[in-house]
Amino acid sequence: MNDTAIIFVMNWKYIRPLKVLLYSLYKQNSLQNIPIIMVTDDKRVLHDPFVRAVCHSIEFMGEEELAPFSSIRGEKIAEKSKVAFAPKYTFLKFSIFKERGFKRHIFIDADMLCLNPLDEELLAADYHVKAMKEVASSHFPIRAEDRSKFNEAKSLASVTRAFEPQENAPGTGINSGFVVLEDGAISDDVFDLAISVASSEAFGAEQPATSEVIRRIPDCKFLELPIWYNARRRVFESLGETFFDQHADRIKLLHYTPGKPWVLGDRTPDYLDKLWLKWEQDSLEWVDEVTIRGSLSD
């Protein structure tokens, strides 16, 4: 994938899952030899040896770099999501729209695991934006959430409709955990549009704001990616391990939301947690080698 960059936006809490994600991409021979750009406001990320080894560049967001975000309205953001330069850590994701000299940006949330090789021809298809539509959390209750209104048939239907890529207008919001941008979706003007959108209307999080920005990109060609490129653990936890096993060989990127195996607390690990922990154990030697070598290249 020539003229492509992978972009991560994260703080120190995601260094551990980043290592496992990159190892899983390496094992699946996917998105290899592509420059990685790290966007962070966290000096622990900036100075981390592994991050410095794998990244083409690190864009540290200090006071001056964060200034454009200061007008974003934060009154609808949950208190637990606010951080020091409030109101919005995750709104840093708007930086994926900025020009950096690449034709294509691939943004990936670090809390993902690559289970099968990615179709790079699909990811390079001629669309301004490629992403998965959001799956309504209310359709997939988990753990202590109320299942009294759970309708398995409707939930399955909402998943199966997204098994294949579909060309259509953005309509409902995307899940911004995995987004591919190119051409007209990458420009400083689109970044300015994103800041303007989130400054003129209060959003509860970055994701609906990003969806609105994409709707407003002039003449935007949008491709809905299959669910397999952003397969939330919520879906499989709700529908059960058998459903996961039936489709495990189709899942490209398993998205660990909600519930992080690296932050279990007093939660008993389930099969999805154990899967990630096994990948982490397998990754340790590779992570050490990459860190010492100072590069992802062999």
Q: Which structural traits does this protein have?
A:
298 residues; alpha/beta; eight-stranded mixed β-sheet; three-stranded mixed β-sheet; 11 helices; 16% strand
Order of helices and strands: EHEHHEHEEHEHEEHHEEHHEH
Helix content bin: 25-40%
Q: Number of helix segments?
A: 11
| Largest sheet, strands/sense/barrel | 8 strands, mixed
- Round the mean pLDDT to the nearest integer and report it: 90
Task: Summarize, please.
The chain has 298 residues and is an alpha/beta fold. It is built from eleven helices and eleven strands. It is 34% helix and 16% strand.
Question: What does this 3D model show about the protein?
Answer:
The chain has 298 residues and is α/β, with parallel strands linked by helices. The protein has eleven helices and eleven strands. It has helices at 15-27, 43-46, 49-54, 63-66, 120-123, 152-160, 188-200, 206-216, 233-239, 241-247, 271-293; strands spanning 4-9, 36-40, 57-60, 104-108, 112-114, 129-133, 166-167, 174-182, 222-224, 231-232, 253-255. It has an eight-stranded mixed sheet with strand order 3-2-1-4-8-6-9-7. Strands 5-11-10 form a three-stranded mixed sheet. Helix 7 crosses helix 8 (206-216).
